[in-house]
Each structure stands twice: as C-alpha cells, then as structure tokens.
Amino acid sequence: MGEIFNLALQTFKTHRMRSFLTTLGIIIGVTTVIAILSLIEGLNQSVARQIRSIGSDLIFVTKYSMVQMGPANIEEIAARPDLTPDDVFAIKQLPSVETAIPTIEQNYSKLKYRDKEVARTSIEGSSENFSKAHNYIVEIGRDLSSDDILYRRNVGVIGSYVAKNLFGDETPIGKDLNIGAHRIRIIGVYKEKGSFLGQSMDNFIVIPYTFYEKIFPRRKTTIFEKAFGGYTISVIPKPKKVEKAMDEIRELMRRRHGLRLDQPDDFELGTQQMLFELYQNITRVGFVAIVAIAVISLVVGGIGIMNIMLVSVAERTREIGIRKAVGASNQNILFQFLTESVVLAFVGGVIGIILGVLLALLISIVSPLKAAVSPWMIFLGFGFASAVGIFFGIYPARKAASLNPIEALRYE
C-alpha cells in the first residue's frame, strides 16, 4: 500500500505542470464550494445572532405575513381589521403572556438638532416595554414610562447612531430634537446594537405611541397605507409557553374579530424561528445553485483526470507488462492506477480547500460578510475530491489491469 502510494506521488512529481493542469477543475470546484459554504455559514451565524437579539421568544401579531413567500394579496390585507392598542391590552391578560407592546412606525424620517440632522431614521411609536421586548439596553438616561404613554409626553429614547451623529460628545439627555415641526425631548439613549442584514439597528427613536398618534395621524388614502400602515404587536410569552401563548392569542383575536369557525384568520402570527427559517430558505436556493456550478467544475476536473490517466496507461504499457511478468496481478495494477487517480484528485482537493479558506477570509476582511469555516466543510472538500478521483479513475485503471502482459511487453 505504501509503495503504491509513493509511486503515485512520484508520478505526480515527475509531471508537475501536467498534473497541476489536470487537477485545475478539481481545485476550482473545491475552492468554490469551501469559500461559498464558509460565507453562507458565517452569514447564517450572524443572522441567527441578530434574530435572537431582536428579542427572546417573541411572538409577532401582524395584519400581514412577516414570512411572505410569493406576492402578497394587498387588497385582502387592506380589508382586514387594524390591530389596535385595545388588542394589546386584551393580549396582556392572557394566562401564557408576560407582556405585549404595540409598535407603529414611520421609516425614513429626518431628525434635526440645531444645524445637524440624520436622515432615513425610523420613528417608532411604542410603550414602556419596548426595550424589554427587543433586547435594547438604556445606556444613558431612562426608558419610556407608563406615565409618558398616559400623558402623551413629547419624549423619546434614541439609538446610539442618532446620538452619535446629532450630539457627538454632548450629552443628549434633556436636549430637544425636531421631527419636522415637532419637538421631542431626549430622555434616554440605547446601547449600540449593530446592524442586521446591512441595516443599522441604532438609527431610530422611540416615542410614546400616544404622542405618535398625535403628530402622525394615520392616513388611509392609499391601499398600501391601509394594508401596512397600522400597529404590529410584539408579545413576550411566559417561559416555555410560546406554543400555548400562540394558541391563546389566535383564539382571542378570532373572537375579537368575530370570525366563524369556517373563516380563516384575518391576522398573522409569527415567531423569530419563522424569520430564521425564511432566511434559510432564501440562502438554500443560492446554495444549491452554487453547488451545481461547483459540481460542473468537479466533473470537468474528473474528465481531465480520466484523460490524463488514459495517457499514462498508454505511456506505461511496457511497465505494466513487466510488472505482470514478474507476478503482479490484475488487481495490483488496477489498485495502482486507481490510487494515482485518487492522489491526483486529493492533491487538487487539498489545494482547493486551502484556497477556499483563504478566499473566504479575504472576503471577510475586505467586506462586511463574515466567514465561518467548520470541520465538516473540510471533510466535504476531501470527500468531493476523493469521489471524483475514484469515479473517473476506474475506467483507466480497469483498462490498465486488463492488458495482456505479452502484448504489453511488445508495445512500442
């Protein structure tokens, strides 16, 4: 076994350039698989972390589906009853629910403080448990209180992005910023949370939803506003009560909306797990496409190996005849050439794995994407390369093994 392996390596060393060109397809295929898998895995870990950071075991009650595959029926969504703060109050009373908060938002508004401004800011109208539901920590000042909600106070808590860009080194607490003609007094700043899918999670301000309704009276002039312009409800269930809480919320909402048994829900329930599964479904399609491309490269590489092994059999016909004349069996010859084929593919696989890991790390350095290399990816790369070596090496090896020793010795 050792001797055959050394012979295979010797063949590889003797024809280095030819061997390298032969394995180029394997190298490209394995490099592509390793690099893409590393980036997808890194992205998966990042997205899972970010979804968890949204809140622990949150249940979302919405008018529209948060996990929409395919086009949405906007007319049907617009016809559904709006979710209201009264729904929130009713959900809070359910046995399996710890608390619930309403949220209504206006994206891409502009905040101003003196001569500074930040654009594309999300204005969230919510209640005192916003930070608890969404895992935000008040770093400076205080959070919204129930009195702020009750008395419709013009106060707000800002994300770290807003604090940094509007106030710099100043303390924002007690300062007033403007949303259009409306003045908001800053009472707190949330600790930085980073970004989610390239979107900053710190470029926002949370104000009491009662005050939000005052300065942004809801319009229903377009079908889009009717469908997507209302409240969403975030529900924190009691520990290990997610499924039970979802059942209770569904039953409650159906009762509040007066739905008969044969009528479908006119609201949607979602969880963080559903969001993550949606993301995985999206990446799975890209993964399959990339693997298909990589498999084509591997097949091309395999054909190259088969071709070069057939040439090798022709070049070494007399050698095969001599080996058979001194007692080598057909099985010995088959095993020798099959080993050479696998070694060729294996070396290509090793180079491909190294290049794939380096490429993934390089992309991580020069872009926001983060790579994560796992041991199973390395084994997968070796597995692909070995399988190609065996599959495309069988025919040349069998051809070498079946040579007649007398004819092989006469071969010129």
Tell me briefly what this model is.
It contains 16 helices and twelve strands.
Topology of this structure?
Layout: H1 2-14, H2 16-22, H3 24-54, E1 59-62, H4 74-79, H5 85-92, E2 97-113, E3 116-126, H6 130-133, E4 138-141, H7 146-150, E5 155-158, H8 160-167, E6 176-179, E7 182-190, E8 195-196, E9 199-200, E10 204-208, H9 209-215, H10 223-228, E11 232-237, H11 242-256, E12 268-271, H12 272-315, H13 317-325, H14 330-366, H15 375-401, H16 405-410
Parallel strand pairs: 3-10, 5-7
Antiparallel strand pairs: 1-11, 1-12, 2-3, 2-6, 2-11, 4-7, 5-10, 6-7, 8-9
Helix pairs in contact: 1-14, 3-12, 3-14, 3-15, 12-14, 12-15, 14-15
Describe this structure in words.
The protein has 412 residues and is of the alpha+beta class. Helix content is 57%, strand content 17%. The protein contains 16 helices and 12 strands. It has helices at residues 2-14, 16-22, 24-54, 74-79, 85-92, 130-133, 146-150, 160-167, 209-215, 223-228, 242-256, 272-315, 317-325, 330-366, 375-401, 405-410, and strands at residues 59-62, 97-113, 116-126, 138-141, 155-158, 176-179, 182-190, 195-196, 199-200, 204-208, 232-237, 268-271. It has a 6-stranded mixed β-barrel. A two-stranded antiparallel sheet has the order 8-9. The longest helix is centred in the C-terminal third of the chain and has 44 residues, at 272-315. The chain is elongated. 35% of the residues are buried. The mean pLDDT is 84.
